[in-house]
Amino acid sequence: MPIFAIFGIIAVVSFGIGMYAGVKWDSASHKAETITAQKEEIRIDQAQDEVTADAGTQAVIVQEKIRTVFRDRIVYRDREVPYEVTLRTDSGCVIPNYFVGLWNSANQGTVPDASRGIDESPSGVTLTDVERQKERETEICLANTEQLIGLQGWVRDQQAVE
Fold first, then answer.
1. Given 1, 22, 51, 138, which residue has the most CB atoms within 10 angstroms?
2. Residue 100 lies in a domain
3. Helices in 85-96 by DSSP H: which ranges?
4. What would the pLDDT profile of 76-110 be if each residue is shown by its tens digit?
């Protein structure tokens, strides 16, 4: 067998072994990069889950705080309101239809129809009804405010994780 043929076979075998070793090396490197990327993704997911759980806990705490504040106001009202709004004052205070329409328009975010004029006829709504409705709307407003503050904090914390 000529010497060139032996060198050719050795070259082909060496090339094959080199290709096999290169593929194995590249595969191991790719696996290491994949594992590192997966670990980072798991870390980010865990941090985001923790932020979400903290936001949920904070929302529950704030909601309980709002309930407590209004529970305190109710206790306070039981002691103070009877002196301010007596039954005679409550029944004697006439809430006109125009006020009720204006209140409803304000809650809907619309402008009342001015062509209807001012309707001063009694609406049947009492002063304590207005007070209770105002308290309910204030509680809803405070709850929405706290939810938005919590959402802003959650978004800020999510962005900080990445």
1. 51
2. no
3. 87-92
4. 444 444 445 566 677 778 888 888 888 888 888 88
